[in-house]
Write a structure and sequence with these properties.
single chain, 2 domains, globular, 248 residues, D-Maltodextrin-Binding Protein, domain 2, 8 strands, 8-stranded mixed beta sheet
């Protein structure tokens, strides 16, 4: 990110960005080395997708409401895993806790695979992870899917409700990846890059590829994407402060 911010603003250096480096890490590191809102000119999002709330089959919850009821009956006894502090699954888990008004314990791992392995083994109660990680385990019957965190259901799990449908609209979470250039890049170059990239993302091949990994190709224009980044930067700063999330 630092190298990208310092690169020549000529359109030949493109920076892959995501919510972690743009809206989360700046609140976790005292000196991240770059300003996400001032050092980059966002071009467009590339892919946007939800996460999946799943439980171990031994957890006595077949719905989100039942999981919330169980957590409220056993405050501090249920736990959820994530690939690490400040990762999207961790933040989605904190949003879920806030929206549901429950007290569950976060267990950070060194990667999503390890967290899901412990969920399958029954060492943790639930997790909110990417579909690519948890969907195969759901299909195999090793995990039970309760909800997706996006605004609509996903084709691969048509019977699984959204968080909003389950009564927790405040737990909606969308992971995203996008592309940007150094802030001083001329607007004519930004416009050209947006036109070319959005054209590629509109092709059936691109949409099919993103669909296979549980995401949607997204082509928001630069000003819309920039506004979304600013809003998420403020949102996650508030969540991180109020939840007391630190890297220690």
């Amino acid at each position: 990110m630092e190298m990208g911010a310092r690169s020549a603003p000529d359109g030949y250096t493109l920076i892959i960005i995501h919510q972690g480096v743009m809206t989360v890490n700046p609140h976790l590191y005292s000196r991240p080395g770059y300003d996400p809102l001032a050092d980059f000119a966002p071009i467009t999002q590339l892919g946007v997708g939800p996460l999946l709330l799943a439980v171990h089959p031994d957890v006595r919850a077949n719905t989100v409401a039942e999981l919330v009821q169980l957590a409220k009956a056993k405050p501090g006894q249920l736990n959820f895993g994530s690939p690490g502090i400040g990762t999207p699954p961790h933040l989605a888990g904190e949003l879920f806790k806030r929206a549901a008004g429950i007290d569950s314990v976060h267990v950070p791992y060194k990667g999503g695979g390890q967290a899901v392995s412990d969920l399958i083994a029954g060492h943790i109660s639930y997790s909110i992870e990417g579909l690519t990680v948890q969907l195969p385990q759901v299909k195999a019957g090793r995990l039970r899917a309760l909800a997706v965190t996006g605004p609509q259901r996903v084709a691969s799990l048509p019977d699984v409700p959204t968080m909003a449908e389950a009564g927790l609209a405040g737990a909606e979470f969308q992971g995203w990846v996008g592309i940007a250039v150094p802030a001083a890049t001329p607007k004519t170059i930004v416009a050209r890059l947006y036109r070319d990239i959005s054209g590629i993302l509109a092709t059936p091949e691109a949409r099919a590829w993103f669909g296979e990994v549980g995401a949607d190709a997204r082509t928001d224009p630069p000003e819309v994407f920039a506004a979304a980044i600013r809003a998420e930067h403020a949102k996650w700063g508030k969540v991180i402060r109020e939840a007391g999330i630190t890297l220690e």
